[in-house]
Predict the 3D structure of the following.
Amino acid sequence: MAGEIPFDPNGLEFCCTVVPDPHMLDYNGHLNIAYYGILFEEAARSVFARLDVSKAYRERTDCALFAAEIHGVFHREVFEREAVSLFCRLLDFDGRKLHCMFFMVRSNDHTLAATQEILYLHIDLQRRRVVEFPEPQATRLSGLLQSHRGKPLPIEMGRHIGLRGRTGKSFPDAGDKA
């Protein structure tokens, strides 16, 4: 869209850049809703591998991250052969849970395509209970949280879903100026 303000990923964790495959498109010619989740999962795997809380961590410790709650917001369409870059921001960490937000940015115009807010639980797979992260993972996650704390909170964080926003005003229809 002409005149859109580019998304500023400064200070966020770069995860990856991907070009959706043609089979990921729906009959409207844009990225199917299911594949947004897959691309956000690829972003999570990328950043979690760097923090050592990925598959290798699970195999060593018999602990893993489980998603407890997810909320997605779709801002712009992603079309065939359109590269998107994904970024992560750690919003909160309490030693056992991670509150993250992922941002999908269209590479052609640097506008925000979608966000995914997600709450992860650190689970002991033997006991099926939420447990504390061990060191050095806890220190890495605390450090990442501190590096992300200076940025303003994303407007999508904690969004309400419904026909009316929290103010009681109706959401604009597609094409309306907000």
